[in-house]
Amino acid sequence: MHPTDFIYVVESKRGVREALVSVWKTAMAAGWTVVGDYDLTSLLVASGSPKEIKSIDICRPELARPFVGAEMLTALCMPCSVLIYSDNGVTKLAAMRPSVVMPKLFEKATQAVGDLAEQVDHELKDILEKAK
Questions:
Q1: CB 126 within 8 A of CB 32
Q2: Which of 52, 82, 87, 98 is spaced 20 to 30 Å from 3 by Cα?
Q3: Taking every annotated instance into account, which residue ranges of this chain make up the domain DUF302 (predicted)?
Q4: Which of helix, strand or coil describes residue 107?
Q5: CA-to-CA distance for 33 and 38, rounded, in angstroms?
Q6: What distance in Å separates the CA atoms of residue 87 and residue 84, rounded to the nearest whole number?
């Protein structure tokens, strides 16, 4: 499996900070809750590097509850993290695709909740597309 099989990435014309704000606002407008956001730049990148790395955790509880009800350990994949970073001067927004990841990790739980992973996947993709 290649990373592009389970990760959705879009390019943004915004700077990293502006893209973070856009993801925040877009997620909230779509009925998602922002659980937290993190500036990973100083933690992960060598001092003086021009790269910026931010992460925002978002959740839509009514979509998460059935997974946790089917299998508590699915909460390890929650909330959904969106990575916002600069790559050669281009801002990118990235998130894992629950419709691909969840069946690999939690096959029985995913079967129990039907097409819910696809719905989460669709909503995440929509948030990233609108936020870019």
A1: no
A2: 52
A3: 52-98
A4: helix
A5: 15
A6: 10
